[in-house]
Amino acid sequence: MSTERPSPGSNGDTTQKRIARENSQEFVSITAPAPITDDKLTELSPPEHDLDAEPDTGRRCVAIAHQHGIVQDHADEREYEAHCVLYATLDGEWVCERWIPGIGSDLSEIPRGFVAPVAGLSAAGENARRFAPIVQRHPEA
C-alpha cells in the first residue's frame, strides 16, 4: 500500500484529510480553500486578543483563508461541522491552522485574529503564500 497521497485531480476526488497530531481528530474538507475576502472580513467575529498590544508570548495572526468540512473525533466517536482556518502573522511569513466549529457559509464564529503560540506556527509554504497578501487588508494589520 502506498503512503503517498494521490493528487486530487487524478481520480476526481478533491477530499483532503488532516489529522491533528495531539489527538485522534481528523479534518475532512468538503469545500476548496477560499480566501478571506473583504466581504467575508465583515462577517468574522472580532479578534480573540488585543492585536494592537505587543503580546508577551506568541505572534499576532489574522485569518487569510478558510474551508468547510467535518471534524471526526475517533476517540469520542463523534463528528461535527467545522471551518479549517488558515491564519498568518502580520508579516505573512508564518502560518497556523485552526479548526473552528461552524456550519456552511456562517463565518460568524471565526475570529479575525488571535495571538498564536510560537511553537504552533510553521513557515508559510507555497500554498499559504498565495493567500498572504490578504493580511494587508485586515483592519488589524
Plain-language structure description:
It is a single chain. This protein has 141 residues and is mostly beta strands. It has one domain (17-137). The protein is 7% helix and 36% strand. It is built from 2 helices and 8 strands. The chain has helices at residues 38-43, 126-129, and strands at 17-19, 25-29, 34-35, 59-73, 78-89, 94-101, 113-116, 122-123. Strands 1, 2, 3, 4, 5, 6, 7 and 8 form an 8-stranded antiparallel beta sheet that branches. The longest helix has 6 residues, at 38-43. It is globular.
The count of domains is 1
Identify the overall geometry. globular
Structural class label: mainly beta
Main sheet: strands, sense, barrel? 8 strands, antiparallel
What's the Cα radius of gyration?
Answer: 15 Å
Helix content: under 10%
What labels would you give this structure?
single chain, 141 residues, mainly beta, 8-stranded antiparallel β-sheet, 2 helices, 8 strands, globular
